[in-house]
Queue: 3 jobs
Job 1
Amino acid sequence: MSPRRDSNPHGDDPRWRAVVSRDPQASAAFLYAVTTTGVYCRPSCGARTPRPEHVEFFQTTVEAERAGYRPCKRCKPEGPPLAELQAANVAAMCRTLEHAEHPIALADLARGVGLSAFHAHRLFKAATGTTPRAYAQACRAQRLHGGLREASTVTEAVYAAGYGSQSRFYAEATRLLGTSPSEYRKGGPSREIHASIHPCDLGLVLVAVTSAGVCAVLLGDDPDALREELSQRFPRARILSSAPADRQLVRAVLDLVEHPQKAADLPLDIQGTAFQHRVWNALREIPPGTTRTYAEVAAALGSPRGARAVAAACAANPIAVVIPCHRVVGVGGRLAGYRWGLQRKETLLERESSATPRGRSRPR
């Protein structure tokens, strides 16, 4: 009797395991082709897994096509990587929302990038940490803040910001502005901020809280300098001493400063441009004990040339540690650009590294 032929010629080849698991991380490393269909695919292709004896591996599309295979119509391996396409789609949706003069329905937003409403919503939230609707609201709010100062009337500013009706605007005006629109135009008082300063291993930490959540976490050594920084950030606010109702939230922030590797799910009240919010959401997705370069964060947001803009957004971050801009580093892991001092940045990263089993990973 002839010996039984091994039905899996690839054995423990990691490429075959990537095909079986449809590993998206392997799509940039190799391609596989199926001899019975004459088609080559990405490892992440959703097509039915072929029999291993019918599979060949290639490094490039050129090699696969020279061998007589044609590209799969499902995963389109001859085109850009899926992650790059998704990032480009999210970036395009963000640009549409940022420049929209009127509210955009999700179906119309998705149609603009060739996706279903369900897929567009899921992809957008996974990439930005927020929904298209919430992102559009942030864009409108940003335009509104500037428009109320410049427009001749409140009505003019409301429609210029992209609100479809005044009733929709007035329903959320106080939440957006912290005061009435007319008072805001006059430069009147904004919301109250309760602030307190506490000693910690990093020196001093100022925690500022509004009724909506944490609005600032500042690090330093001089209490007067910290108070002045808070006043400059919120020139129209009434800054008061921390209230008893804020104690639990303040304790959570202080615990996170001492143990930055812990998960942070704290209510935040943070104002910024739409792009800044995208960067800050991306920073919160970086796992403790790991780092990313400014260029990597920019690429993940669909702006591969936006490293400087990402660095500027990190520098504008008013909530230290909770929004972990300390996890963003320069090329080659160089520590740079931390507005509260490089020594504090290094200390935070060392604490996370020592508390994370895998240790600190350097940028890829």
Job 2
Amino acid sequence: MGTPITTSTDSAAESAADNIIIFVPQVDSPAGSGGAKAVDEALDGAISALAADGEIKGKLGDVTILHTLGKMAAKRVLVAGLGKPEKLNLDALRDAAAGAARRARGVGGSNLAIAIDGDPLGTSEAAQAVVEGVQLGLYRFDRHLSPSDDRNDIDGVTLHGSDDAALKRGAEVGEILAEATNFCRDLANEPSNILTPTELAARATQWAKDCGLEIEIIEEGEAAELGMGAFLGVAKGSHEPAKFIVMRYSGGGDEPPIGLIGKGITFDTGGISIKPANNMEAMKQDMSGAAAVIAAAGAIAKLGLPVNVTVLAPATENMPGGSAIKPGDVLKAMNGKTIEVINTDAEGRLILADALSYANHLGLTPLLDVATLTGACAVALGNVATGVMTNDDNLAGEVIEAGVRVGEKFWQLPMYEEYEEQIKSNVADVKNTGGRLAGAQTAAKLLAMFSEDTPWAHLDMAGTDDSDKVKGIYVKGATGTPVRTLVSFVRARGGARLAPRYDSDSLGER
């Protein structure tokens, strides 16, 4: 669980919290309304004076600390910049809240008050964004560090505003989304000697229990009976038993379930086609796709969305053991198609081939698969955007729009027929790599053979699953992408949006 959140209709200026955060835009008179104005008045116009002198500019990412020196019950006020008003949106507010919360934790004090009222704040969407920012920005993965006496923690946050119902609505959604995202981060950051396929299944089982989901773990024997030769082929080199995780949420009556499918390679050595040693430790996160869909299912259930969702997460290690598959081997997937293994390090598409086949067997539609699949996608899009490849452009548009609503970027890559030529095999229906060129698309073309005619979108998050620096809502390590986008997509499919399109009365155009 994250930091406890409460709400209050009292002015933040009256709070006795150790630290108060107020948000100001980049304008000549930043403390012009709401909580910012009340705090400025309590400090005898100190914020306005510093703004006039150019010491408080309101730039996005700026945080200025003022000591109250007894003029208020609180010890400090942190003035967080929102940037230029014409560029102000929920993303900016989310990032500003994250940065200010981290700064508040750094200067000390166990409790925090945040003013969320006045123009342009005061909506439930603003409260949601602030809570997401605080919980995501304060995230730490330190369970394997020795206890530290000088560690600062924030034990409680109170949102102050005039509309308590709006604050509570926004805070509830923000907490659910942030909790799921941070659960995904916890899974992805966990060392692979701890988070084996068995442990991933155990944590998914506990998460399902906590969130009210049904769960089934398909063991290797049953997977063999189902004909999952590609999934089990990847698992052959590992001493750890493979687990195929199935989670179900039923909230949509008789409608076919949406299928969310995640790659769950708990460690990827590359197999016989072993990876270079440099940075191989990052391959503990090759199960980030599975973590994302598992986490998203919990948020969907807690929000009570009027949809049906089934999550499929094939989990195994990719190891170079004596039983491991070798280049040149041929595997048969559940749908009967055969795959020639050219490179054992192209294993993610193998386990997803069986997951997509099983999704069709279950009648799921549409299908979204999430995977840290190709370095080629990271080369193309960097760590800024997740690649989208699809057999249905309208579905890709829905995914991209869902990402816009929560501040996660996606970019559609083409799926031209010519890419299929690169994965033709002389000895099987398809081969598992197509060479250096268009590597993201050729991997997706293989997956398309197993999604078949079902509307399907493939999300390649090889560049966006991890952050190497602290910025806004992101800290070093797993990002939790695209948990919030998946929830936003499912919520829109259920007839509601996670947050409305911005207009002039809220937080500007995105």
Job 3
Amino acid sequence: MSWEVIFDLDESRQKIRKLEEEISRESFWKDKEKANSALKELKRLKRSVGPFQGFSAELTEIKELLSITEEEDESSLSHLKEEMLKLKKGIDGLEFRSLLDKEEDTLNAIVSINAGAGGTESCDWVSMLFRMYGRWADSKKYTMQRVDHLPGEEAGVKNVTFIIKGEFAYGYLKSENGVHRLVRISPFDANKRRHTSFASVNVAPEIDENIKVDVKESDLRIDTYRAGGRGGQHVNVTDSAVRITHVPTGIVAQCQNERSQYKNKRTAMKILKSRIYETELEKKKAELARQHEEKKSIEWGSQIRSYVLHPYSMVKDHRTSCETSDAAGVLNGGLDSFMDAYLRYEAGKKK
């Protein structure tokens, strides 16, 4: 354990004590905005410090048991070894969580996937990515809510928007922002030729009540229309789908998931505000990147990750050089190694 880590822990404990003292004062709730901000900060600090204290206590207990265990007691030593491996796994996970240090990292994630050039091939690639993120969400015990969906003309999906709900969902999924490239033998080509497909993934944090995004009514254009899609008889009979355009920025959000126009409008508005917020975050990030001369545009052909299924199996992230030959595992939701590599890559750029 480094002195730097000990110092950070002590500093966090001091902040917790100070915030708890503030909360105990009678005047604390006079400024509700400040009070809510303080409670949120206290929760964040306890979430970081609590597990560390728990692991420290476990380590102390293991050391004490080890000191009184005889070398001949193989059963007890084996048990202590198992406990140490569990502890190591927990500490590794805590180290990974420490990389999610932004205010927005704890929020739900709004994900949009759009097909690139390539017609049916790209639409099928979108549906594969949609399934991949669904499997990943299941592995984290997160929930997924689809809010917009446009099917392809022959197969697959032209574009889909969904919300993945769970603590740190955005912190993990922000690594997926960009263009994803697929190379495979096409199941739609009678000649069994190899095809390359592209799809863009956009991830925005779903803002909560603690994040204020001011949007003027006069800056909005709201359109209603009949929801589309196969088998959607119950939603097609009324103009329940809603599309909201933020005129100054051109940012668009739409929802057709509910029968109620009011519910669709409310969801679309939340997505719009989240995208505006995410755009501001990207502007700040781009400015920092320019300062380090490391900015890289996201456009067709400058993919962040390649998935190769033929003539060999490989998935490679072009930003971090993280790669694996288990392409099937990745497409079944095994994204953690890529997310971990990305977070460490971003943390390294700040040093």
